[in-house]
Amino acid sequence: MTNTGTTNVRLSPPPPELMRLINPVVRRILATRWLGSRIRRQGMVEFTGRRTGRTLRIPVCLHHVGDETLIFTERAWRHNLVGGAPVTITHRGQIRHGRAVLLDVAPARVGAAMRAAMDDGAGPFELGLKITRGYDPTADDLAAIARSIIRVDFED
Known about the structure:
Helix content: 10-25%
Radius of gyration: 15 Å
Number of helices: 4
Distance between the termini: 33 Å
Strand content: 25-35%
CATH architecture: Roll
Largest sheet: 7 strands, antiparallel
CATH class: Mainly Beta
Shape: globular
Order of helices and strands: EHHEEEEEEHEHE
Strand order of the largest sheet: 3-2-6-7-9-5-4
């Protein structure tokens, strides 16, 4: 999956430099029960790096699609979750443990999952997309965009 989209729908993740500035603040907000409980989709995934052994705490958008909790990303940290890894998710002021797996799925499944997330109210920014104003992308439009899916399976 290397295509970056069509003219109506394209990848538009925030620049890494901006995320390095903002993420420390977002991590603090998400960790507090009072503020973190007010944020619907934003959460924090915490896991141990495969090669470095360092603990990584990454702010993400969590999307509930059917009975699955999914994260859409193309950031390099996703490779730590190939084959699955134990994670701690902080979401809405609560801490849950589980296992996250980087899925190897067909682009059609990615497009359908992203469309379902949008139907649930996720905005283009939360999906790392730029969509032409007034255009309603189909699952096929979204399948043409390079995205990876991480599925989170909670222990409880």
